[in-house]
Write a structure and sequence with these properties.
- The structure holds 2 protein chains of 2 kinds.
- Chain A is built from 2 helices and 13 strands; from the N terminus they run αββββββββββββαβ.
- Chain A is mostly beta strands.
- Chain A has 2 domains: 78 residues, Roll (SH3 type barrels), CATH 2.30.30.240; 77 residues, SH3 type barrels (Roll).
- In chain A, the strands form 2 sheets. In chain A, strands 11-12-7-8-9-10-13 form a 7-stranded mixed β-sheet, with no helix packed on it.
- Chain A starts with 17 loop residues before the first helix and ends with a strand.
- Chain B is mostly beta strands.
- The chains are: A mainly beta, B mainly beta.
- The interface between A and B is medium-sized, with 29 and 31 residues.
């Protein structure tokens, strides 16, 4: 194949094309496979790459991600700098005694950023009601969510509100 | 509530003291909330009379003993560990630095009986890689390794040639 002629003031040999990106797997900071790149988003005024749209698979709602959260684009995948907060949905929540508090049903984010403000859970110990737990009560998010308070403190706390 | 007759030099306080009978059958959680299994035994040192560890039975091929140095918190509801168990890496995907999936972890080699990983065996179809711990960037949802792993393809015709040379 003949090399294409280039009309540019810059060296374009190290750039990637949208074709290279589309369909590529997206891996977050923890090494979780988030989905595949569905669209490449370009600002029509600045003519700048602004982010990607991610397809999470059949019957799962995709989302768009700003380029600030992309760590690197490699030949096989797109690596992110972050753990995607949306992924917390569906995880089990345990208090600091290891007792199951509930399952995350939704999350409140800080604007359109990746920062969690609250997690909303359907709770087994609060008679099946939904409760909102602020992010400062989260100790660690791994395969599930660990809180830094126990069930009784959650009940007493005025920060926790029933939905 | 039951009232006790105390015979103890340390006073009459049962706070922070757990009924061992209640803890049998309760869950063991890792640092990140992974459900490791259920407690089948608690082991107490007969000389020092101190709790030494617990045994998880059922989930693994063999019962797993976890020493108390790996405990973070003990309650009547569960035991929370201060580690992610390295034996649970088995089955996780291994990704190279350039995002290529190398395969899945088939075996973990640990330093003695500790939780520290020495190396692990990754298999993908007929290929087998032994990756030392020093090559690992992180172990979380997947295992990410520091390098691009490019092994020379050993094609069938090359293998036949090698065999004929022998």
């Amino acid at each position: 194949m003949k090399p294409q002629k280039t009309i540019s003031g810059r060296d374009l040999s190290k750039t990637v094309t949208s074709e290279d990106l589309l369909g590529k797997e997206v891996i977050d900071l923890d090494g979780s496979f988030i989905g595949v790149v569905e669209k490449v988003l370009i600002d029509p005024h600045k003519l700048d790459f602004v982010g990607i749209s991610i397809d999470k698979g059949f019957l799962r709602k995709g989302f768009t991600l700003g380029k600030g959260y992309i760590d690197k684009i490699t030949p096989h995948a797109v690596f992110l700098k972050i753990r995607v907060s949306y992924d917390v949905k569906g995880k089990l929540v345990f208090d600091n005694d290891g007792e199951l508090v509930g399952t995350v049903t939704s999350i409140d984010l800080y604007g359109s950023k990746n920062k969690i403000v609250n997690i909303v859970l359907r709770s087994s110990i609060f008679a099946g009601r939904e409760i909102v737990i602020p992010a400062e009560y989260i100790n660690e998010i791994g395969e599930n969510v660990m809180l830094n308070v126990n069930k009784n403190k959650l009940k007493e706390s005025k920060i926790v509100r029933e939905v | 509530m039951v009232e006790y007759e105390y015979i103890s030099r340390r006073g009459s306080n049962l706070d922070n003291k757990i009924n061992i009978k209640k803890i049998i059958g309760k869950q063991v959680l890792s640092k990140g909330g992974t459900i490791v299994g259920r407690i089948s035994e608690l082991r107490i040192n007969s000389d020092t009379l101190e709790l030494e560890g617990l045994v998880i039975d059922g989930r693994f091929k063999k019962p797993v003993y976890i020493g108390k140095s790996y405990f973070s918190h003990l309650s009547e509801k569960a035991v929370i560990l201060n580690i992610e168990l390295s034996i649970l890496i088995v089955g996780k995907k291994v990704i190279t630095l350039d995002g290529k999936v190398l395969g899945k972890v088939k075996e973990v080699n640990r330093k003695g009986t500790t939780n520290d990983v020495e190396s692990f065996v990754v298999r993908f179809l007929w290929r087998k890689y032994i990756i030392p711990y020093t090559d690992i960037k992180q172990i979380k949802s997947s295992v990410i390794i520091k390098h691009k792993y490019e092994t020379a393809k050993n094609h069938l015709w090359k293998r036949l040639k090698q065999n004929s040379n022998i």
